[in-house]
Amino acid sequence: MHRRLLVVLVPLAVLLVAALGVPLSVTVAEREMQETYVDRLNDVGRFASLAETALSTGRTEALQQELARYHELYGIPVAVIDTSGTVLLGPAGAYQAAARAEPALPRIVTAALAGARPEPSGKWAPWDDSALVVAEPVGRDSEVVGAVVTISDLSKTRHRILVRWAQLAGLGLLPLIALVAVAWPVSVWVLRPVRELDAASSRISLGDLTIRADAEAGPVELRRLAESFNTMMDAVENAVERQRAFVSDASHQLRNPLTSLRLAVESLEPHLRASGNGRQVYDVAVDELKAMQRLLNSLQASARMESIRTASPVDLDAVLATRVDRWRALTATAGQTLAVDVPPGLRLLEPPGGLGSILDELISNALRLSDAKVVEVTARVVRDGVDAVPDGVDAVPDDAGAGGLVTIAVRDDGQGIDASERAQALRRFWRSPRHQNVPGTGLGLAICADLVGAAGGELRLEDGLPRSDGSGHGLAAVVALPVVPQMESSSGAPAPSPA
Question: Which residues form the Histidine kinase domain (predicted)?
Answer without folding.
Answer: 249-485
